Amino acid sequence: MKISNIILFSFFIILLLFSITTYLNYALADLTNENTEVFERSSVVVRHSNRFQRNFLNMVSGLRGYLLTTEGFFIQSYDSAMQENEDILKELAILVPEQAQQQDLLRDIRQLHTYWIQNFAVPLLEARKNTLLSDSTKRAFDKFYRVKLVDGLEKDVQASLQRKFSQFINFEYRLRESEREKLKASVHNTKVVTISLTIISIVVGTGIAVFIAYSISSKMINMVIMANAIAGGNYEVHIHDRGKSELSQLARALNRMARILDTNITLLQRQRDELDQFAHIVSHDLKAPLRGIDNVINWIEEDHLAALPKGVVDYLALIKGRVARAEDMLKGILQYAHIGKAERIKEVVDVNELLLEVREYLPSRSGITLTVQTGFPMLFTERIPLVQIFTNLMVNAYKYHDKTENGFVKVYFKDAGKYYQFFVEDNGPGIDPKYHQKIFRIFQTLHPRDFVESTGVGLSIVKKILDDRKLTIHLESETGRGATFSFYWPKDETHE
């Protein structure tokens, strides 16, 4: 399976678990809100119930006080409590669910309350008002009062009303406790499920992450091993991976690349060997006839120089120059072909002594002053390539110099961090910028060979030495303003 599909599938699993957890918490929040509403409604019901009972007691005490004293204050208290109870009964009828058992109790309470008013309170109040007319009505009221209040029926009605309200309130409390227990159980279940899903999400996510990390890291390690092997020259390395993931496809692509590299490197190595062999054969096979030509000319000069016309002598000298140039070119070909193939032997090199050695190879030119900066550094590096670079640059500076007086060649250096930057500067004829790249090609010269004897190999050797070490050479020059060649060289190659 592709890694992208595994990641996408894992994401959907974790997203599903997260969605379930979110839904459960959302449902719990709704249930909590519902329970809060139930508790608030229950609190209102209980509060109204207590007010109703308190008002009923006020009605009873107000009725008895008026019957005993006929004071208007008591009847006002009675009327106020009765009106408030009517309002309370209406509100309770709205608050209590229609299908609940409390509706039956509420109907019984309303009936008992109405029965007490109609059968006790109203008749007694009417009878009490009539006692003011005559003594006989007062005696009749006393008798009626004993029948209604003293004989016990009215107390039974009050007791029944109180009992119904107790049942009503107890039912409300049980309902509230039931809702509380339901909420508690829901909270507990939600907590358990949420924790379980969270643990599952962590385990699944960790497992998937470990699996993906292991799959990627193991394949990447194999690829790194393969890349290091290829960098070390082993192009036959191979990764065994038959998976369908992106990294498996990359591994198979690397296998194909290694096979192609092996084929191409083998081909290049064979071509390189053929070129080296060709260069060696050409240089050695051509040297023999060149030496033969040179020997024949020497014999002619030794035996017949006095008898030869001056023009013939000049032609013989020209031929000898061409032979010497051809030999130098063959020598340059061999030097160019051998760059980078010899074993690199590093040693401590004193650049001051190296430059003294290079001075011996400089052509004799009057009017040119050589200035070498003092205090050149000590390097741990290869000596021969550095000698070749300085020799070719300084010899070229002398060879192509056009001044007969006040000419100079300067050699100096600068510190450039991990490298030194070396300079060879002259005030010669300079080089047009359009030829700055051409001069580093093998056998390329800017002057006719008859004007300046040159093989055109020196700067190409310098360039190849630096390219082989991934170093650079720079040229700053314009026509008529001299030239400055500079190159970088590492300070210490101990760990390279």
TrEMBL record:
Reactions catalysed: ATP + protein L-histidine = ADP + protein N-phospho-L-histidine
Annotated Pfam families: CHASE3, HAMP, HATPase_c
Keyword Transmembrane helix listed: yes
Origin: domain of life: Bacteria
Histidine kinase domain mapped to chain residues: 281-493
Record keyword Cell wall biogenesis/degradation present: no
EC annotation from Swiss-Prot or TrEMBL: 2.7.13.3
Enzyme class: transferase
InterPro entries in UniProt: BphY/WalK/GraS-like (IPR050351), CHASE3 (IPR007891), HAMP_dom (IPR003660), HATPase_C_sf (IPR036890), HATPase_dom (IPR003594), His_kinase_dom (IPR005467), HisK_dim/P_dom (IPR003661), HisK_dim/P_sf (IPR036097)
Record's subcellular location: Membrane
Keywords on record: Kinase, Membrane, Phosphoprotein, Transferase, Transmembrane, Transmembrane helix
Protein name: histidine kinase
Highest classification ranks of the organism: Bacteria, Pseudomonadati, Bacteroidota, Cytophagia, Cytophagales
